[in-house]
Automatic annotation (TrEMBL):
Organism whose genome encodes this protein: Edwardsiella tarda (strain FL6-60)
Protein name per Swiss-Prot or TrEMBL: Fimbrial-type adhesion domain-containing protein
Pfam family of the protein (one): Fimbrial
A biological process term (GO) from this entry: cell adhesion involved in single-species biofilm formation
Coiled-coil regions, chain positions: none
InterPro entries per the UniProt record, alphabetical: Adhesion_dom_fimbrial, Adhesion_dom_fimbrial_sf, Adhesion_dom_sf, Bact_Fimbrial_Adh_Pro
One Gene Ontology CC term in the entry: pilus
Gene3D superfamilies associated with the record: Fimbrial-type adhesion domain
UniProt main location, coarse: other
Keywords of this entry: Fimbrium, Signal
Family: Belongs to the fimbrial protein family.
Places the protein is found: Fimbrium
Length: 296
């Protein structure tokens, strides 16, 4: 068999110079919406200190940031950014400083802050699915990734408390003839009384207010509330923000609200007499109900 000859070949195995990648995760945990924090001020802040091995001579100026999301502003080239976040009304600031750490490593210090971006803030979550920025190393004119920085946290919605717990209406005396001559099951304008439900919340936050009303002696239709002393006399209550009649059958209805920056939210109510029967009696009348307020 004839000998076969192959062309001579030279195979060079060259080392691939790549940065040792470092992934860092920053968790801000659960945060309140910071109603006392003004626009542009810091809601939370964390400072990182990282050690990055050098793949050659250490060059502090060769490390930079590569944003992985919406860039709102940039103060220093590739070193200081304000970035958007998944949470409406919230921005993320990141600033990077570097310094040599011996002959074969760099010390990186990064400050990450959550900033209130606008007057309207919503709750939500910043997840670890996508990095905030990538750490980039420039060497011999080439820019390569040295690691990623991830940020996570949860911003809770407005925390509210009811300041005026009881809605007590003291209706003035109503002449018997005014009630007797009023249409059946219709509110009587004379003798009405107004009260305000006062809430104190974190300001500048979107929230949904769900209200539920109930009463043991609720009638049909459910916006009529008979008096305990006389079934021929009762009351109707109107909620002022939605301009709707309170229903006493535990049916829920929601109000989409934005809490003002002052943190004070007022929900007005007006109570009216109503004739429910043909022969109402004179004398004092009263009724009791219960309300529940839920914030989301």
């Amino acid at each position: 068999m004839a000998n076969r000859r192959y062309p001579a070949a030279l195979l060079l195995l060259l080392p691939a110079l790549t940065a040792a990648q470092t992934d860092t995760r920053v968790d801000f945990g659960h945060l309140s919406n910071g109603g006392a924090v003004a626009v542009g001020e810091t809601l939370a802040r964390q400072r990182l200190r990282l050690t990055l091995p050098c793949t050659g001579p250490c060059d502090p100026d060769g490390i930079s940031l590569l944003p992985r999301g919406e860039v709102l502003s940039q103060d220093a080239p590739r070193r200081r950014y304000r970035l958007g976040s998944p949470i409406a009304g919230l921005a993320i600031d990141i600033a990077l400083e570097t310094a040599p750490l011996g002959a074969d490593a760099l010390q990186l210090e990064a400050e990450i802050a959550l900033i209130k971006r606008g007057g309207r803030t919503e709750g939500g979550e910043i997840s670890l699915h996508t990095p905030l920025v990538s750490l980039m190393e420039t060497r011999d004119g080439r820019r390569q990734k040295a690691g990623d920085i991830y940020v996570s946290g949860t911003l809770e919605l407005a925390a509210c408390e009811v300041v005026s717990n009881a809605l007590t209406f003291h209706l003035p005396s109503l002449p018997y003839v005014a009630l007797r001559s009023s249409p059946l099951a219709r509110p009587v304008e004379e003798g009405k009384s107004q009260r305000t439900l006062l809430l104190r919340c974190d300001g500048g936050v979107s929230t949904e207010l769900t209200m539920t009303f109930s009463a043991l002696n609720a009638a049909t239709p459910p916006w009529l509330l008979p008096a305990q002393e006389d079934a021929a006399v009762g009351f109707m209550v109107k909620e002022g923000l939605s301009d709707s009649w309170v229903q006493w059958n535990s049916e829920r209805y929601s109000l989409a609200l934005t809490v003002p920056e002052s943190g004070t939210l007022e929900v007005p109510f007006t109570a009216y007499y109503v004739r429910l029967g043909e022969r109402p009696h004179s004398g004092s009348v009263s009724a009791k109900g219960q309300y529940t307020v839920v914030y989301r």
